[in-house]
Amino acid sequence: MAKTLRTSGDYTIKTGAGYNSGAGTNTIDLDSKIVRVRGDLIVDGDQVVQNVTNITVEDQFLELNRNYSGAGAEDAGIVINQGTQDAAIFYYDGTANEFRIGTTARPIADGSTTKWQIDGGAFALANIKVATTPTHENHAASRAYVDAQVVSASGMTDFFIVGDDSTGITVIDGDTVQISGGSNIGVAVANPDTITISLKNDLSNITSVTSDASNSSLTLKANGTGSISINNVLTFSSNASTPAAASVTKLYSKTVGGGGTGVFFINSAVGSGTEDELISKKKATALAIALG
Hints:
Layout: E1 76-80, E2 87-93, E3 98-104, E4 124-125, H1 143-150, E5 160-162, E6 168-170, E7 185-190, E8 194-199, E9 250-253, E10 263-266, E11 276-277, H2 281-291
Antiparallel strand pairs: 1-2, 2-3, 3-4, 5-6, 7-8, 9-10, 10-11
């Protein structure tokens, strides 16, 4: 027979010394198939233990660490009991400002008298298994997916290195590519992906220096007040035509003319930019005798 107990004010059931006295030891045992609370349920205690098979929650969000009001971030998360093994834990690390998944060694506070505490020294990160192929650019990628993108099943068969002799070398998975600087080029490699190649102070065994841009000039410039020294023969290739005059002196070679040298110069500030030939010692001597 159903019964209803109605009161006009608060209704208290207290066993023994109760809870607030700090000395209570008695228990209220509700032995029923279903206990329904039609209003809000507030539990003022140290621990809630649910010995049930399944828990279903209608709320969309669960708030953890509810009464914390400190200025700094605090650790909070979910601990999964693993028996005699280390407890599994998914939590937010307030100090590092990041989420972590891993295991932490027992014993740690069980929540009955104090908050759960993570033994930071014993915490070990755990692996996370995700779908093999991500379907969005921001999805986490599995190792299998990354490996498939970088290395094919037979290795990197489409990676070739060609040397000065035009011989191609195939580089496969596990091979090491070494860049040697030699006597004139310095090579430095820094992780993760920086290779620096620089010329050293002195160059030797260089037989040709060529500008790679069409119709561009090649400039040799000394540092500060230094000069460019030529310690051997300076050879000029014969020009088919006279270059355009500029405010700087241009020295070049053409067919030998009246000066007897075949070495010509031109400067827009000299002789109105008219081409002239350097005169040889023999020619100069002959002219001096002829002119008395």
